[in-house]
Every structure is written in structure tokens, then in C-alpha cells.
Design a protein that fits this description.
Layout: E1 3-10, H1 14-26, E2 29-36, H2 39-48, E3 53-56, H3 65-74, E4 81-85, H4 90-98, E5 103-106, H5 113-150, E6 154-159, H6 170-176, H7 180-183, H8 198-212, E7 214-222, E8 228-237, E9 245-251, H9 253-300, H10 306-337, E10 345-349, H11 350-364, E11 372-375, E12 381-385, H12 386-403, E13 409-416, E14 419-426, H13 458-468, E15 472-478, E16 482-490
Parallel strand pairs: 1-2, 1-3, 3-4, 4-5, 11-13
Antiparallel strand pairs: 6-9, 7-8, 8-9, 10-12, 13-14, 14-16, 15-16
Helix pairs in contact: 2-3, 9-10, 11-12, 12-13
The structure holds adenosine-5'-diphosphate.
């Protein structure tokens, strides 16, 4: 079977070219060939390639094999280069081989040419495959190096079989604070914390990675500056023996914080649901009892005193009011969180709103509750949302009544320049200093639920409404002494804002 062969002949004699080609075709090669005998035409032919082999005379009038070899080297081309020459000394032959020729023949001895060509073509092919394989590895290594050095939020580095740092990337420097010259050669346990198991824990992680191929865990680590962070550490065994490891560390503190917050939010929600169902159930049960006993009184005799029935119905109305209050709080929360609560500012007298709310409370518990004093020497005019401000006063007053230990309550309303100030003072159980911020958050309470009814929503709603008006709310309180809630509101609210 004929074998195709592309031959570049560097030769000034067409006869010699023919001689060599004939020898190759006799051996079964189907050649395509070109003859050149000058540097320029040689260079052009090289570029026009591809060629499988170069057969070159040693000396020509305008060219030579050593010059052709120099051009090949210059062009970084690796082709089998066989010198076929008249008569040459051994010294020149050795010199040419050193310059890169692969074989050397006398023109009168070309019978060995085909086998030499076959060998050199095969070897050139193998050299090419090896070069390509090396190039692929080099490219893969370069890509891996680029990837690793560009990972800025992960520390990714190699450990030797003893667990010492063997390489270091920019992310590792950024995350752990060590430069590569400070850390390479040091044990990876330098980042470990004693209270997290220290050196032994790291050894255990590597032991498991060695046994299982890969091991991932989360723990606190220490940076060079001594600060701690919550990290995910994964170690992967390198399969070459002796086994080293790839260690990847990333800061997952934010993820852990969010997760903790989520767990806490679910806990608070579950607690709220249990409190809410209990809180709603109590007035409903009481309402049913009062209405039931009113009905029984009427059934029993036509002459039942109206007063007795009224008493039951008044108690029932009180429970209805409580129920309405709870449902309103839930509706407020839904409106606020869904952004559907809107302020409709209008000109109001804050003193008048306060007096209305107090009157409403007194109507529901005539003569039964503690004394509520309102100090509002003059009108306090401003532009506010009526129902929002009503809810603020109502919540603060109902808290003062609930937690005020039955003692008198003082409410004052005054103008302070371009602001209005409302203070609600009670002399009840007070609030511990470390609870005073928390109680303004949703569902947060600072009292045992079995002693005081409530959903833990009132102050949160109050703060949302006050802040939506551009105002602020503060509490001053001493445990067992009572509390003062102070609301500051700007007196002019421009336009209508969403809450
Ligand atoms: P609730 O009263 O339904 O629990 P709030 O949001 O109105 O919800 O109040 C949150 C918590 O703040 C209450 O559970 C209570 O611990 C505390 N608190 C509110 N007002 C007072 C007050 N005047 N005196 C003492 N504690 C109060």
C-alpha cells in the first residue's frame, strides 16, 4: 500500500532530487515534492507546508544545510532533516548532526534513505504528540493556577502529606491574613482554635480525608490578626502518593448568621402563633359565657331584672372590645408588613385625640380603672394621620393600664417648637434596662404570658406609625418603679406617605 509523503528537497541539482525521490517511491512512498536551493525560497516553502521530511544537500552554490537548519531553528519548526550529500568528512557530518540534522547519507548510498525517512517521520510524529501533550498539561496547569489565584473569597491551597502548607493563593492571603512567605511550610493547624479541638481536630479532618477521599466540616478558625470567623473547611486527598491534600476554606459567617436568624424567626413565629391563639380564645370563651348566661337569665323568667342582663351584656361587650383590639393589631401588622397602610395626614389637635382615647377607655371600664390624668394646657396642633395617632395613644395607654399596677397614669401633651411631644407615665412594674430596646420589636415581650395578656405587637405598631410620621419613641424605666414612654412628632407632615 502506498504511503503519502510530502518532501521538501533542498538541492541545486534536479538529477539528485530525482534520484532520491525515485528511491523513496521504490520503497512504496507516494511523494509530493518541491525543490528549493535558496534561503528565501526555502523559507517560503516552509510556510507553504506542511512537510513530512526535508532532504538537503550539504553544499549548494547559494545555500547550505547548516543555513537551512539555522532557518528551521529560527522558525521553530521541528521536521525530520536528512542530509544527502556528495562526499563529506566525518567532522562535517558530526557538526551537522549537532546543528539539528537527524541523519546523514552520501549520495551514492541512498538505498538506506527510505528506512531512515520512515524512522525519522515516526519519531517526529512522536515528538509532536509529546509536545502537544506537554502543551495540554501546561495549559491545564496554567488554567488551574489562574483559577486558584483568582478565587478571592475562598482560601484554596495545597498541603503536603504531613499537613504543612505547600502553596497559597490570593484568597487565602485575603481570608487568613498570612502572606505566602510567612505560611508556606507551616502546619495548617496554625488556623485552628484550641476551644475548637486545635491540632488534634485538624489531624482528624485530614485522617478522614485520607480515608474517605474528601471531608468537609464547619468550625471557627483564627486569622493572623487573632480574629475568629466561622468557616467551611474542606479537605480533598490528592491521589498521587504520598498523599497530600487540597484544602479549601471559605468564610460562611454570613450564611450562619442568616440561618440563626431564620431559626430564631421561626421560633418567634411559632411562639406568637401559640400566644395569639390563646389570646383570641380567651375573650371568645368569655364572650360565649356572658352571652349564654344572659340568654339563660331571660329564659328563666319574664321578670328577670334588666340590670342583671345589662351587666352580662356589658361584660360581653368588654370581651368584644378586647377581641376587636386584638384583631385590629393583627390587621395593623398585616397592613404595615405588606406596605398597604397609608397615612392620610390632616390637621389635628393631639390633646383632643388623647382626651378622646382616654374617654373611650373610661367608658369601657366606668369607675373601675386607675385614675388617668391628662395634662394638656393648650391645643397641640399638627398634621397627622388621625387613626394612626389614635392607635399610638391607645396602645401606650392600654400598656400603662395593663402594666401600671393599678396606680395613676399621667399623660402630657405639649408643643416643643416644630415638634409635638406626648408622654405616658405609669408607676407600675417597669422594664429592665436590657429589655428596653427589644420590646419595640415584633412579637417581643418582657413579661410572662401567663401573667399578662398580649401579643407583643403594640409597641412595634406604635413605633412603625410614629416613624412613618418622621417621629421617634423612647422609653425611660426602672424595674418596679414604672415607665415613661415619650413620643416626638414633627408637627407638619407633608403629603401622604406609605408605611
Ligand atoms: P404586649 O403588651 O401585647 O405584650 P407590646 O408590644 O405593647 O405588647 O409591649 C411589649 C412588651 O413591652 C410587653 O410585653 C411588656 O413586657 C413591655 N411593656 C410595654 N409597655 C410597658 C409598660 N408600660 N410597663 C412595663 N412593661 C411594658
Amino acid at each position: 500500500m502506498s504511503k503519502p509523503l510530502r518532501v521538501l528537497v533542498v538541492e541545486d541539482s534536479p538529477d539528485d532530487e530525482e534520484l532520491m525521490i525515485a528511491e523513496l517511491e521504490r520503497a512504496g512512498y507516494e511523494t509530493s515534492h518541491t525543490r528549493v536551493d535558496q534561503p528565501d525560497t526555502f523559507r517560503d516553502a516552509l510556510h507553504r507546508g506542511p512537510w513530512d521530511v526535508i532532504l538537503a544537500d550539504h553544499n549548494m552554490p547559494c545555500f547550505s544545510a547548516p543555513r537551512a537548519l539555522a532557518i528551521l531553528a529560527e522558525e521553530r519548526i521541528d521536521l525530520p532533516f536528512i542530509i544527502v550529500s556528495g562526499s563529506v568528512s566525518e567532522a562535517i557530518a558530526v557538526e551537522s548532526m549537532k546543528a539539528g540534522a537527524h541523519d546523514f547519507f552520501a549520495k551514492n548510498n541512498v538505498t538506506r534513505l527510505p528506512s531512515a525517512v520512515e524512522r525519522e517521520v515516526r519519531e517526529a510524529r512522536m515528538r509532536k504528540e509529546r509536545r502537544e501533550a506537554f502543551e495540554q498539561i501546561r495549559r491545564a496547569e496554567e488554567q488551574a493556577r489562574l483559577i486558584v489565584s483568582n478565587i478571592k473569597d475562598h482560601a484554596a491551597f495545597l498541603l503536603d502529606p504531613e499537613g504543612r502548607v505547600a502553596s497559597w493563593n490570593a484568597g487565602a492571603e485575603q481570608l487568613l491574613g498570612y502572606g505566602d512567605e510567612e505560611i508556606i511550610g507551616r502546619p495548617v493547624s496554625v488556623f485552628a482554635l484550641e476551644d475548637e479541638g486545635g491540632e488534634q481536630e485538624v489531624a482528624e479532618q485530614l485522617r478522614r480525608a485520607l480515608a474517605e477521599g474528601q471531608h468537609t466540616t464547619e468550625c471557627f478558625l483564627r486569622r493572623k490578626d487573632g480574629t475568629r470567623f466561622w468557616a467551611e473547611c474542606s479537605s480533598s486527598r490528592i491521589d498521587d502518593e504520598p498523599h497530600g491534600f487540597v484544602r479549601v476554606i471559605r468564610d460562611v459567617g454570613e450564611r450562619k448568621r442568616l440561618l440563626d436568624e431564620l431559626v430564631q424567626a421561626v421560633r418567634v413565629r411559632d411562639e406568637f402563633l401559640s400566644i395569639a391563639s390563646h389570646e383570641l380564645n380567651t375573650p371568645v370563651t368569655s364572650l360565649a359565657i356572658q352571652l349564654g348566661s344572659a340568654a339563660r337569665l331571660l329564659d328563666r323568667s319574664a321578670s328577670t331584672p334588666v340590670d342583671k342582663v345589662r351587666q352580662k351584656l356589658t361584660a360581653a361587650i368588654r370581651q368584644m372590645d378586647r377581641l376587636t383590639g386584638l384583631i385590629n393589631s393583627l390587621l395593623d401588622v398585616t397592613r404595615i408588613t405588606s406596605g398597604k397602610l397609608q397615612l392620610a395626614p390632616e390637621r389635628l389637635d393631639l390633646a383632643e385625640v388623647v382626651r378622646d382615647v382616654v374617654a373611650r377607655f373610661e367608658k369601657t371600664t366606668p369607675g373601675a380603672g386607675p385614675r388617668v390624668e391628662v395634662a394638656a394646657p393648650s391645643p397641640v396642633a399638627g398634621c397627622w394621620d388621625r387613626s394612626g395617632i389614635d392607635r399610638v395613644v391607645e396602645n401606650l395607654l392600654s400598656n400603662a393600664l395593663k402594666y401600671g399596677a393599678g396606680k395613676p397614669i399621667e399623660i402630657s401633651v405639649e408643643t416643643a417648637g416644630d415638634r409635638a411631644r406626648l408622654s405616658v407615665v405609669d408607676h407600675g412594674i417597669g422594664i429592665a434596662a436590657d429589655e428596653q430596646e427589644r420590646i419595640f420589636q415584633r412579637f417581643e415581650r418582657a413579661v410572662p404570658e401567663r401573667h399578662y395578656a398580649g401579643l407583643g405587637l403594640g409597641l412595634w405598631i406604635v413605633r412603625q406609625i410614629v416613624e412613618a410620621h418622621g417621629g421617634s419613641i423612647h422609653v425611660r424605666s426602672d424595674e418596679g418603679e414604672g415607665s415613661t414612654f415619650t413620643v416626638d412628632l414633627p408637627r407638619l407632615v407633608v403629603g401622604s406617605e406609605h408605611m
